[in-house]
Amino acid sequence: MATGAVNRPTTPAERSANRMSLFRENKPVRVIVTDDRRLCRECLRLLIETFDPKIEVAEADDPAQISALLQEDPDYSVVLYNLVLPGDEGIEFVRGLRDSIPDMPLIVLCDFDDPEVMRGVMACGAKAFLPSTTPSPVMVAVLRLVVAGGSYAPPAMLLDSPERMAEPGLRENRARTDREAVIAEHFPILTPRQRSVLALLSQGYMNRDIASALGMCENTVKAHVKQVMRKLSVDNRTQAALMADRLVA
Question: Which of 23, 142, 6, 172 is closest to 79 using CA atoms?
Answer without folding.
Answer: 142
